[in-house]
Specification:
Elements: H1 13-22, E1 33-36, H2 39-45, E2 53-54, E3 70-71, E4 76-79, E5 82-85, H3 88-102, H4 105-114, H5 133-142
Parallel strand pairs: 1-5, 2-3
Antiparallel strand pairs: 4-5
Helix pairs in contact: 1-2, 3-4
């Protein structure tokens, strides 16, 4: 799932087309429906987040509420078969959790080892709550 947001537009046209696809016959047949970053906006436009808490990229936190969801700052949120993750690195967290759900914990741990997923960021600014104002300002200019 890829969610795309155009600068200056909170609802890109992909969301309109997304609603038709997600709410069609294939919508209820998925084992899990997941999103990374602003992909949650596509799920919201499809009506899959109505009344649920969901997460998304920090620069789009107000937008899920326009689709009936309640934003949370959690990195990964699961409601039955719908799972949303905040950013790219939390998408990796979600993928490892999803591997455990689809197989077992031992296999998910082996996948984590095979990919050497052992986050050790050089800076402690990986969330809005931790980042100083100047880092947040610079991040907004990057895009």
């Amino acid at each position: 799932m890829l969610g795309v947001r155009s600068r200056g537009s909170s609802r890109p046209s992909v969301l309109v087309r997304g609603r038709t696809w997600f709410c069609g016959p294939g919508c209820s047949g998925t084992r899990f429906t997941t999103s990374v970053r602003t992909g949650s906006l596509v799920l919201g436009a499809a009506g899959l987040l109505d009344g649920l808490t969901a997460t998304t990229h920090w620069d789009a936190v107000a937008e899920p509420e326009s689709y009936g969801a309640v934003h949370t700052a959690e990195r990964v949120v699961r409601h039955d078969r719908v799972i949303t993750s905040a950013g790219v690195s939390s998408g990796i967290d979600m993928a490892v959790r999803l591997a455990a759900l689809l197989t077992d914990d031992l296999t998910a741990q082996a996948i984590q080892l095979c990919t050497e997923y052992d986050p050790q960021p050089p800076f402690d600014t990986g969330s809005v709550a931790k980042a100083p104002a100047e880092v947040l300002e610079r991040a907004r200019t990057l895009g």
